[in-house]
Design goal:
The chain has 508 residues and is α+β, with helices and mostly antiparallel strands. The protein contains 11 helices and 28 strands.
Length: 508
Amino acid sequence: MMADKDTRFHRVTWKHSILGAVALGAVAVTGVLGPSAHEAALAQAGPVTAAPQAAQAIPSFADVVDRVKPAVVSVQVRSKAENAQVSSFGNALPDIPGFNLPDDHPFQEFFRRFRGGDDNSPRRQQPTPRRSVAQGSGFFISADGYLVTNNHVVENGNEIEILMDDGRTLDAKIVGTDPKTDLALLKVTEGGPFPYAELAAGLPRVGDWVLAVGNPFGLGGTVTAGIVSARSRDIGAGPYDDFIQVDAPINRGNSGGPTFNLKGQVVGVNTAIASPSGGNVGIAFAIPSETVKSVVTELKEKGRVERGYLGAQIQPVTKDIAAGVGLDKAGGAIVAGLADDGPAAGAGLKTGDVVLSVNGSSVKDARDLSRQIAALEPGSKVSLQLWRDGARKDLTVTLGSLPNQPSQVAATGEDSATSVGKLGLTLAPATGDAKGVSIVSVEPGSPADGKGFRKGDVIAEVAGKSVETPADVRRAIEQSRESGKKAVLFRVESENRSRFIALELPAA
């Protein structure tokens, strides 16, 4: 692949060189033959280029770097690794079948010489515990030694050392971690007071300059610059993704380090890069300072983060789903399932409800609803505005505390199969503990196939009504058509989750 890229590069360069040679040749010929009529006309008309302007000064970040760099540290994490066979010269030897060579093998002399032993010395030592070292970045947020890094930098660590910009190495302890946002709060108890960085109060704008300071590839104190490329990025890293995207060069070892604005305030904590090779390609992601503030506050006070819990499985409202429930446009989050004995079920929330706002704040999509609920304290009361049965409805829910949620598996059945030909589905009553209609097969290329229906899925509801037989499904589809709807909404259970799928109604 590298050879191909180099070849393409040289081809482009070669093409440009030819064009340059042609242009030079044309000038030479014109000079020999004298000015053309066209050139004479241009000379009379005057130059067509704009008057030269003063060159814009290139900004220097040196003053900002001088202020913020002392607050940034390298984080070295030591952890015990699994036992390994270690040779007498310190390298781990893999446990490969056939590795033990016979005593008369020619390679034995080779190993004997490098071991520095005699013929009777053992070829291997006993298993010895090894210690692995991981490196990342971090920064102080207070003079008394609190500092922030990524959870993935320290999560497996037994010992943590902080290498400061002034060359000191200090021990640090974990105060608390939050895997869901990939943040960790550490504390250094000796050697203070420490230089620290201030967290920015708001989000930067797209196009703002930013500086990243960190420990890429173990090269501590490295500074790179770029701009904010985008905001509110969801990269699938966690349930509360809301990253700032920057194009400042970020590499391995930058994890946990800060991204600064030109005021010297931290706007984000670097946590991920998008790269096919693992190196910088100009797409990096930082956790916003607003998130860092709220998480750090809870970690400092409680050692953990407590989040509000609604007890509802949700998904975004697409245009098709909006048409299926009678909304004018896509937006909000539709309830696809409810946890048994959860706050939402207890308050009267139903599957098929669309959550439009939380405490008066509009809900853009399912992820936005998750973030809004998670930001609230367990036990707090929230006012939800819903869309149910073609009308708005208000509901008050008292939030619980986020637990590990169990999931339910829906069984399938293939008896009494019935085809819904225009949709491309073959259905049968579900068996076992599952309630609904099982999908026996999906016709390739059909509307159902295109929307993601799969064999083994169980249809629990159609158009907001529970179904138990294929006839129930047909009846619900027909009633939706008669009511003037352009699409019909299915609630489907599969792979330990529940989701809504909207299908355009076929012609009668």
